[in-house]
Amino acid sequence: MTRLPARLALAVAATALALTACGAQPTGETPVAEVTAPAVSEAPAGEPVVACGDPVEGFAVTHDHDGEPLPERTGSGDADLLTAPTSAVVADDTIDPVTTGVPPQLPVTVESCDGAVVEVTDTSRVLALDLYGTLAEIVFSLGLGDSVVGRDTSTGFPEAADLPVVTPGAHDLNAEAILALDPSVVLTDRTIGPTDVQLQLRDAGIPVIFFDDTRSMDTIPTHIRAVAGALGVPDAGEELVERTQQEITAALDDAPTGARSPAVAFLYLRGGMVQLLGGPGSGADSLIRAIGARDVGTEAGLERPFTQISAETMIGVQPDVLLLMSAGLESVGGAEGLTLVPGLAQTEAVADGRVVDMDDTVLLSFGPRTGRVVTALAEAVYE
């Protein structure tokens, strides 16, 4: 598929935006980042890269990279838990590329998660956009950060800080801001949108690839391999999967063994309007298991990743620890404000100050830095 010149693509986008309600408004001319185009080698003929592969069950949580079972970690008791509200902070939030200077093998044919078949012929100007910052973290970790020309608000690591933001309205994509960067390929998923914008980019001739929306420990290798394959660096992807596995395995040693696993409730809060309890599939449930704890939402029998908080549920499950995103905790006025959320004032977790928060751009990213996330959580939850 031939890409339209940037100026013509901008005109197409402007017309389309006039006919659709995208929500985000242009914020003026967006600077185009200068990048060095990577060298390209001819890709061998083969099967298309599949952007929606199956998760690797138990990845880094129950087995190591060689398939050997890890020791069971059941946590410790209340006496070893935190005694005051604590922020879990990763010791180092920088990106460490697994390799650099590897020429992508192009072209690559990719089966996008929306059913489209996309051909990638140029990775010199990459945009990786999703709600969690996962895709950009993977691209930088693969050693292709110099080719990234913009970012979303969830991409919060230092190496991307100076890139133009293409989601000026919270997490809404701005088509004009994206097209002004003249990307050669866009990596995304349906956690961010509006979807009309992503499809407008594809109509403008830009290869747009949708990846799996799910985030958990088990999906980490799937995402790494899919992104690496789509960008023509599959060998770097395998190296990154192995390194990530090793780091997570080492991080599990920080989750102490003991007689009783603490019950942790993951709360997604946005002031008084959005107050949700995480359950199976929230992503946080796999992190909670990784530190030897029990996910309250799963044990309560929730059937969805997120369910509206009720006083009856919170009083009934009595979590030992509350886990939140930092912005969510701030939105209710900090740890003291949790007493205004239904049922939380009646929990020992709030009464005893056992509240852990973590930066929104880090907690559920489920990328190559996840080993550091597990370590930070374990250090925060266990005294």
From TrEMBL:
Keywords: Signal. Residues 127-383 form the Fe/B12 periplasmic-binding domain. PROSITE patterns: FE_B12_PBP, PROKAR_LIPOPROTEIN. The keyword Oxidoreductase does not apply. Pfam families: Peripla_BP_2. The keyword Signal applies. Residues 1-23 form the signal peptide. InterPro entries: ABC_Transporter_SBP, ABC_transptr_periplasmic_BD. Belongs to the bacterial solute-binding protein 8 family. This is Iron complex transport system substrate-binding protein. It comes from Georgenia satyanarayanai. The lineage of its organism: Bacteria, Bacillati, Actinomycetota, Actinomycetes, Micrococcales.
